Amino acid sequence: MTKSALLVVDMQEDFCPPHGALAVAGGRDIASPISRLLAMPFTLKIATRDWHPTDHISFDVCNQPPNNKAFECSTIISNPQNASDSMAIPIWPVHCVQGTPGAEIIPEINMSQVNRVINKGQDKGMEMFSPFADTFGNKSGAASFDLAAYLNENGISRVFVVGIAGEHCVRCTAIDAQKEGFEVYVVEEGVKCIDYGEDGWGATKRQLEKAGIRLVSIDGLEVQDIQLCS
Question: Is 10 annotated in the active site?
């Protein structure tokens, strides 16, 4: 029997209106389709959440002015496994700090249906959009456990991804799941994006499809198959 997992990405207060520090417009609206999916007999249902320390390198308050404007500036991080490897990452407002209300999963998501929560972005000096690995592709203590190993231990072969935001953490999660050898689907009704234009979600969809990741409907055959395989 084919075993499937549902990954619910970063449905946190800080990513949702009305008070989120990095609120995605309409973020709460996808709680309904996600709840429909959570009620289905996936073998595993996993929620991810950003779980940053107070001094995370991406925070505006942790960078020196004038080069610390959120959404406008970037900062450089280095690969801990290769000192000569570095990249620029965006600077954000403070968000999803460990133990704060903004880091909590929104109450519209029924966490009693979730098997496990994975915390990511716990390393103050590293960015982590995907729960599988950091932005350099390393698996480390920046995540609370090895998600790929956990899925494999449970015989998972297919992964369905939903959540916030489509161009960032959803995209990276889906691509990393595919790199780990899983068959990956993104359920569009369960995704919210910051930018729905051709340079935002449009470009993301092309990238996902090029990687072999399928964008599907909650009412499509791929999701219906979850019921048949239970």
Answer: yes
Pairwise CA distance, residues 101 & 164, whole Å: 17
**By C-alpha distance, which of 9, 18, 41 is closest to 226?**
41
* Greatest C-alpha distance within the chain: 56
In this predicted model, what pLDDT tens digit does every residue of 127-156 receive, in sequence order? Answer: 999 999 999 999 877 788 899 999 999 999
Active site residue 169: yes
Question: For helices 171-179 and 203-210, what crossing angle results, to 10°?
Answer: 10
In order, the DSSP letters of 101-154 are GGGSBPTTS-GGG-SEEEEE--STT---SSSS--TTS--STTBSS-HHHHHHHT
| Active-site residue identified among 96, 169, 172, 193 | 169
Does the pTM surpass 0.85? The reply is yes
Catalytic residue among 45, 96, 120, 192: 120
